[in-house]
Prior knowledge:
The structure holds 2 protein chains of 2 kinds. By secondary structure, chain A is of the alpha/beta class. Chain A has helices at 3-12, 45-56, 94-105, 121-133, 186-190, 205-225, 235-243; strands at residues 31-33, 66-68, 80-85, 109-114, 140-142, 168-173, 176-182. Chain A has a 7-stranded mixed beta sheet, with helices on both faces. Chain A is globular, with a radius of gyration of 19 Å. The termini of chain A are far apart. Chain B is built from 16 helices and 37 strands. The two termini of chain B are 65 Å apart. In chain B, the strands form 10 sheets. In chain B, strands 19-18-20-21-29-28-27-24 form an 8-stranded mixed beta sheet. A 5-stranded mixed beta sheet of chain B has the order 7-6-3-8-9. Chains A and B meet through helix 3, helix 6 and helix 7 of A and helix 7, strand 19 and strand 25 of B.
Amino acid sequence: MNRRDFIKSLIILPFLPDPIALLDYSKFTAAKVKYQGNWDLRSNALRKVMYEVNRRTSISCSSEPATVEPESTSIFNYPFLTISGDRPLPDFSSISIARLKRFISKGGFIFIDSSQEEGDSFYRSVQRLTGLIIPNSEFVTLDQNHVIYKSFYMLTRAYGRLSRKEFFDGIIYENRVAILFSHNDLLGALQKDELGNYTYSLTDETTRRELCIRTAVNIVMYSLCVDYKDDQVHHPFFKEKIRR
Amino acid sequence: MKDLLTSYSIDIDLPFSKTISILLILVIGALTIYSIKNLLPYLTLRVRVFLSTLRIMAVLSFLFVFFQPSIIETTYYLEKDTVAILIDASRSMSYKSREKRRLDIAKEIGKKLYENNELNREHRVVLYTFSKNLHLMDQIDRIEIINEDSTDIINSLEGVKLKHQDISNIFLISDGADNNLLSSPNLDTNSFLKRYLRNLNIPVYTILPGSDQAQNDISINISSSPPVGFIGKPFEIILDITNNSNISDSIPVVVKENGTPVYSGNYRIKNGEKRQISISIFPKNIGRNVYEVSVPPLAGEEYTHNNSDYFTVRITKEIIRILQITGSVSYDVRFLRHLFKKDPNIDLVSFFILRTLNSDVNAPDSELSLIPFPADSVIRDNLLSFDVIIFQDFGFVPYGLNTTFSDINKFVKNGGGLLFITGNNWYKWIGDFISFFDECMPAVPRIDDNAIENIIYKPELTAPGKTHSVTRILNSLEENTLLYKNLPDLHGIHRVNNIKSSSLTLMAARISEAERAPLLMLNRCERGRTALVLTDELWRFSFSEKTPDEFNLYNKLMYNLIQWLAAEPNKEELIISQTPQSDRERRLNGRLTGTISGSDIILQDEDGTQIRGKITDSGDFSFDISKLKEGFHSGIINYQQQVYRTYFYKKDPDLEMRDISIKGEILKSIARYSGGRQIKAEDVEKGRLDIKKKPIKKIQSQNKTPLWNKGIFFALFILLFSLEWFFRRMYGHQ
C-alpha cells in the first residue's frame, strides 16, 4: 500500500460496515456482554460452547463468539447474549437498559451465568438489572419438567462447575424464557487455559464435563427452538424413553 | 254560456279589535241583565216583561248599528273539478294476461274512462302514464311501455296532486307491481298507505288490467347472504320465491358455485304465493365465489330473466394448517415458528432436524430427546391435510425423501402452497428434488459452489412488489414504499437460474448499481402457489433497532405470504369488487396487485370475447361488460404473462322485472285507505263509476249593501230607545 492508498483508506474507513456485521449472520453466534467489571471471566468458554453445538447439532455456528456493549445497537446482531460474573454487576446506563428492554421484547435471549462460589451478591445485582429490563418480573425456578432439559439431550438437572442449585432460574416473557440464570458456573466448566486444558477440574471429571457440555447445548437449542420439544408430536417418544 | 247562480250572506265590520269588541258586548250584556234584575218589585210581571223586552230590543238595535252590518250578494258559477286517469306503462305491463298485454287491457279501460260522457260532463279528465316518473298524455293510443327501471306508484300519486290543486278523484289502472317504497321489506305497507292516503285526501279508484291469478311466472330474489364464509362450514342464504304459475307448485331450486352445482332442492310454494326460504350451502372452493341461484323456466314462461339471481361470498379457511420442516435450526426458523405459534388462526406442525448425518452427538439415542423424522406419517400420508408446507434450509436426500417429491408436486398442483426458504446447507442435499423447482417454483436456486453471494445489501421492493398484496403492508403506496426503505441490511443471498416468466419478484437485493438479485419470488403452479425466499435473514426485519414497536414488518410480511400461499381471498393478486348490491353489473371493477401503472389488462370470457382495460397507479382496473350476455361468466384476466381465472355475473339492475305478478292486495289497500274503491273493468265498461263530485265555485261578482245606515233602521233605533225611555219613566224608574 502506498501513502496515497493509505490516506484513501483512512477517509473511507468510517463508511465501511461494522466489522461485526461482516460475520456470517445466519450462523449462530453467541455474544458476550461487556460491562465495567469482571465481564470476561470465562473468556473462551463460549467458543467451546459454539464448537460443541456445531459438532453435535444441525446448528451452524460461527467459530468465534462476539463481544457487544449493551449501549450499542450491535446487540441486535446477536439474539443470544451472555453475561457472566462473580461479583455484583455495576449499574447499567439508562441507554443500556432501554436497549436490553427492546432486545428482549423483539425476541432476544440472555443467558446469565454466575461464577460466584459463595454468597448471592451477583444474583441480587442481576435481579436488580432484570427488574429494570422487564419491570415486575421475577425469576422462577425451571424445574425438571421444563423443556430446556430436553431440548436436545435428556437431562434431569442444570449442570455446571458448581452445584449450588439443581435447576435454572428464568424470567418468562411472552411464553418463553427470555432471561436464563445459571447458579452453577456452567461456563467455568467449559473454560480452558492457554494450553487448551480445562481451567477447572471437576469431580467425576469425564461424566460431569460431558453433562455440562450437554447443558450448554440444550441452552443454545432452547434459545432457537423454544418450546418445540413441548409440541404434542414429541410426547409419545418421550414417554417411551422415560419408560425405558 | 255559464249558468250563473246567486247567494246572500251577512257581513259585519268590527269597530275595534275582536277582543275589545267581545269585551264590549259582554259589558253591555251584563249591564242589561243588571238593569232588568233591578226593575221595581211592586210592578206586575206583565209590566216587567214588557219593560225588559223593550230594553233588550233597544240594546240589540244599538249593537246592530254599532257593528255596521251589510248584506253581500254573490254571483257565481260552478266549474268542473279534475279527475286524473293514471295508466301504469311500466315494463311489467308488457306482460301478457289472457293473450293481451296488461298495457293493452289498461289502455282499453283507460279509453272507456277517458271518453265516458258522464265523466267528461261532470269533470275535467286528464290522462297520465307512469313507471318511475309521471308523464302527461293527450291520447290513449299514444301510450306505450316506458323504458324505466322501476315502478313508483306513490311518486305518481304525489305528482298528480302537485300538478292539479283541484283534483277530486284518481283512477289508477295498474298491476300494482311497485318496486320502490311499496315493496320495501322494511315497510309496513298497510299502515304506511293508511297514513299517506289520509294526507293525500283524494279518493283513488283502482282498476286491475287483468286477473291477479296465475301469470305463469316464477321469480327468485336473494334476500340475504353472508359476505364471508369458511371452507367446509355451511352458510345460510335466504331467498324470496314468487310462484305465479298455474302449472306447478313444486319449485326446483339449484345453487351453483362458480358454475358447478352445490345444492338442489324442491320447495312447495302455492300458486300466487311468495315464500321466503333459507338454504344451507357447503362451499367447495376457497376464494371469492360467485353463486347463482336459479329455478328452471316453466313451459311457456315468457319472462325468464327473473328466474335466477346471484350473490358472492368470500370463502376463507378458518384455520390455516402449516407444516414447517427445517433442515437446521436457526434464528430464521425460530422467528417464523414463534410468529405462527402464537397465532390462534394457524395450526402449526413443526419438524426440526436437530442433528445432521455428520453430527457427533456423543450420546446413545436414549439420552437424546430426538425423534425419528416422520417421513412416512407426514410427507407420504398426511401431506394433503396441510394448506402450506414450509421447507427451511432442508435437503431431501438424507431423509429418504428424494423419491417423494412427486407427492409434494401433487400437493402443490392440487392447490397447496409451498414456501421454500434457503439456508447454508439445503442445496448440498437437494438431490432429484431440484427438478421440482424447475417445474413449479418461481426459479431454480443455484446449487454450485457460487450459489451464495456473500454480500451485505439493502433489500428493496421491485415495481410489482410495491403494489402486491403480499408486500403491501400499508394501504398508502408512498408510506408502504417508505416502510421498506428503513429495513436493516441483510447478509448473503442465494442466486437463482431459470427464472420463470410467470413468476413475480417482489423483493430484490441490490447487488450493484445496475444489478438486482431476486430475494422474494412467487409463482403459480397449476392450482397451487409457490414462494421462494432466497435468504434466511428475513427475521432481521423483526429483530432490529429500526423496527417500530407498534409495527412489525416481518410479522406482517410473513403472515401475508402464508395467506397468499393458502389462497386466502384477501391476499389474492386479483380482487374483483363486483357485488350484487351495487349497480356495477355493467362494469367489472377490481384490483390486480403487483402490476405496473398504465399497462394493458384483458378480460376474456368463455366465448372468447375480449375486453380491454388499463391498470391505474394503485392497480385498479375496470371492464365494460355491458355487451356480454346476461348471467354467470367464467373468464380469464390476462396481465402480461400472468393469467387469472375469474368468475362474475352480468345482471342488469332491473328492479322492474324481478317480480311482475299483479299485486291486487296493494291496489285494494290504496283504494280503501284513500276513500275510493276497487272498480272492476266490467263496471267501467257499463259506465258504473259513482265517484264523488267536488265542483269548483268560481265567483263572478259580489255586491255589499250596508244595513246600519238605512233610514228605516235608524228610525227604528230612535223609536226603540224613545219607547224604552218613555215607559221606564212612566212606571216610575229613573
